[in-house]
Design goal:
The protein is an alpha/beta fold. 40% of the residues lie in helices and 20% in strands. A hairpin with a 2-residue loop joins strand 9 and strand 10. Helix 3 crosses helix 4 and helix 3 runs parallel beside helix 5.
Length: 284
Amino acid sequence: MSRTILKADNICYTYDGEHTPALDHLSLDIKTGRKIACMGSNGSGKSTFFLCCNGIRRPDTGTLFYRGKPFDYSKKGLLNLRRKVGIVFQEPDHQIFCADVQQEISFGVMNLGCTEAEARRKVTQVMDKLEITPFAHKPTHALSGGQKKQVAIADILVMEPELIILDEPTAALDPLHTQVVHNLIDQMLQADTTVMLATHDVEYAYAWADDILLFHKGRILAQGTPEEIFMRTDLLQTVNLKQPAVLSLFLQLTQDNILPPNLPFPKTMEDLAVYLKRLKSKHP
């Protein structure tokens, strides 16, 4: 059984000058090795929760636990936490500040106390894995939006964190660079690595995630598997999300007795096409 890597116990947070809390008695458990999609309307608390997970924001009340231990907000404690919990911001310009790509990716790992040789090995390995070696010496200000996302992800991967958090990693990207980032996310999924991301893309979340967290007004409205969450049209309406097209079509086909109702839920249109081809072969 998976162990809990991150636990939030009744945490609250209100930004200075605001009256409505961004996080309102939020509680949840995140299990090791899971792929978690965090969904909900803008302003529902996802980004604030992510900042709390990394220690950038500290809850006003409540407690966060990492592997069973309460967060330590001392300088040393936060450094240890950020070695284990990496976050990629929605806007990569908020975390990229070195002159060129290789310097940028080297910065964090050098600050961990690695030798120059070890840091160089790790940086080279990550750049090769993410296929960004060709622009290793390119000025970071000259990168495209998609390339900046790749570099921001490399910044985190080189640190070898146990929990990787991505805040809307494909926001404002075209379809080509969206697929590039999705491929990079798949490459993160090493053994026991936990990945948590915020997205409004219901098709991607349904196909990719092990668990869905629905945020609403600073709380967790629901948590469950993609099938459990996306079957609940009442919940989806509350957070302004649609049912994934492949699920909606599959349900319609089963209701019309075109497909048997006992089939596993298809995750993609390709999965659904397989069912239909099998049906056609039986009834040419």
